């Protein structure tokens, strides 16, 4: 089941209706489009809906909910309706309605039927609203969270409504066992979490995306694009063995980021940097107007070195130093893409030369937003720093795109890439485009993002070459020992013969 913003709300096959089932043991009252309907225990009520629908549940009691419900929803009430998760009531200022934002993000609230008037509340701030213009002492209050989820309740004058986070953090995943046999890298444009994507909003797809990222081979190195701070924090909460490097692209270091996450049991950071793709790369939020882009673009560079303990656990020395660069090129301006990737290549080349890193694995990953096969930005990577397109090594990836706009059908060219040092070509164990989704033909398909993630795996197992050298070594040692013993024996015999009387 695809869980929605309430624990009792799921999706069913009919995308053009809403279904409500009462398993609470009591009769509940519903107010839908001005019409009141009672629903007895054990009964189901279904009605046509092609858009988000406001529903009052038990609208004449203090325990009422007010929800915007999307089409295809299936609500199941297993107990008497209570206040929405995270919302609590307390006495407040007489004749005023006090609203307190106890979350870490901006909230919006609206008193119905004045739906057009939304009031913003900053984190850890409060506002007071007068209900003198409302004929009823009890009014439906709608709350919109930063991720697009909406809940509601019936509020009365003189109350203080405290709004805490509306969802509990899910349990973290189990880390992959050590020692690692493969270095698994993933690049994913996760779609920024405040986009008004309706049923594809972040709150609906975050669990699916996290499950897919964990997948069969959890990433040792993970590069994300369009990642807002709260999305990065949620990923870190589910993947506690990962550490993150990177900031947002705006002048205050907020906004979308291109973070690099890595397995802290295997790697530690020697150097990291975020630079802006402009003529002033050290200036946060900078944009070069002559390049044609209107949005700031950034790249995150991280030099990872093996943790000593991880090498011991690996019992091999094949855990490489890795220079990772995560980039998100502009979606509109070809000049900005080309100039931006040239700057990235220059930074990579200068860093490798400055530190003499000849055996370092270089990984350049991200969303290139290229418009054609063999675009200038792709040629620049191959010609300027000689990296190879890892996904192009596998025939199964040819002719497949990665941007599908939540439709599941991606057009070519592919715009998400993993480039790697050519010396590691023989170590590429696998690569691919992850097209996992949930759903089916009847209920439709749901996708974790508007891009397909791309993955690559590099073999760290030195069994073939290592065992060959060890065999040669072990076979050679007895041979050398026997030869030396034979030489000593001959010398002893020869000495005895010389010293013995003739």
From TrEMBL:
CDD domains: EEP-1 (cd09083). Gene3D superfamilies: Endonuclease/exonuclease/phosphatase (3.60.10.10). Residues 188-451 form the Endonuclease/exonuclease/phosphatase domain. Keywords: Membrane, Transmembrane, Transmembrane helix. GO terms for molecular function: 3'-5'-RNA exonuclease activity. InterPro entries: CCR4/nocturin_mRNA_transcr, Endo/exonu/phosph_ase_sf, Endo/exonuclease/phosphatase. The chain crosses the membrane at residues 481-500. The keyword Magnesium does not apply. Pfam families: Exo_endo_phos. This is Endonuclease/exonuclease/phosphatase domain-containing protein.
